[in-house]
Amino acid sequence: MGAHSGKLSGQNSIKGHEDIRNKVAIALKAGDGKLCHIVIKEYIKYGWNKNQICKWLIEAIFNHNLNVVKAIITGVDAEPELQSELRKLRYKGYTALRWAEVLESREIVDFLKRKKFVALGSSTNAWSAISSIIIIENEHMIQNVATLINKRHDVNKPHSDFTHSDSNQCDTQDRVMLNETPFLVALKTGRYDVMALLLMNGALPLVEDFFLYRLLEINVRAKVFYLLLSCNALKSMPAGDTSLLQFLLARSIHVYVLSHVKPSIKDLSMLLLETFDDFCHEDKRFLLSNDIYTVDEEILAKIHNVLYEPRTLADLCRRRLRSHLGLSFQLYINYIKHEGFPPRIIDYIQYRHLFLKYFNEEDIKCFEQSLI
């Protein structure tokens, strides 16, 4: 009887602790400082987890919410050991104060300094600060990533260590895998607005074989390809053992999807053939080989057109402009729209007819919100 009673008591304690954590999460999401203070105090009574409190604190800093930061810090006043640990505890190489400084949260910086927090960590550590921000959902993500980019944080920096065992590290369970770049982290978390921002600031979209396979998942295919084409980031380039074009052409023979799924593998192959400024050596060799004659007849006709038919002067000018602008293309489009260029010319430069041909209109409206 006693053992059974003890077991029930333990289960109730775990459930009660979980309920309080949920209350804290709700209070944090609402940004309610007073409620945060009350539930943090309650959480401390049940026994605290420094990693959990560290995560709440980092989330509050990422959201630039001074009231919640105050509520968390003052809520642990009864635990001097915990408060001392929080002052030097790091999330992805930076202490709380250092994150507040990097993100230019002046009021939070002043408050944490008064509470004797220390600023430790530099941009040369093993973690990508940009990826570390993307992995934790926050209302100010675009602002935060833009701030780091303006501070010259590397948009292509991969995580070089995710197994750091330093006891001063805050393990929040939010993982960025080894060698993943900010662009891939944004792709995995579905932040297409962040992907657009990264692309327009020099991020390299095709970095490893893994990316090719991600593009073929139906739920992300249209979004990613629309974004890459809009940002002028679709290029003929080797990626691992093959290139994106060769990979898609090979898949177009074997992959069959319902007709309403847009763009299909075949659509993507046609899209690349129609938009590439130039083909890398591997692609040219593949397009001229006998292997190519196993693909769809429409694709074969497009390949013949691309390789042998002369281009119009307008198309040559469009391709030269896009090649010259590179990843600055979308910024240029935003500029000429503001300057009142004729919409017909802008549509032509953007390959608008291809958007309408290969993508659903409702998807186009949704994707364009990421590029504003």
UniProtKB/TrEMBL annotation:
Pfam families: SOCS_box. InterPro entries: Ankyrin_rpt-contain_sf (IPR036770), SOCS_box (IPR001496), SOCS_box-like_dom_sf (IPR036036). It comes from the Eukaryota. PROSITE patterns: SOCS. GO terms for biological process: intracellular signal transduction. Residues 309-355 form the SOCS box domain. This is SOCS box domain-containing protein. It comes from Mytilus galloprovincialis. The lineage of its organism: Eukaryota, Metazoa, Spiralia, Lophotrochozoa, Mollusca.
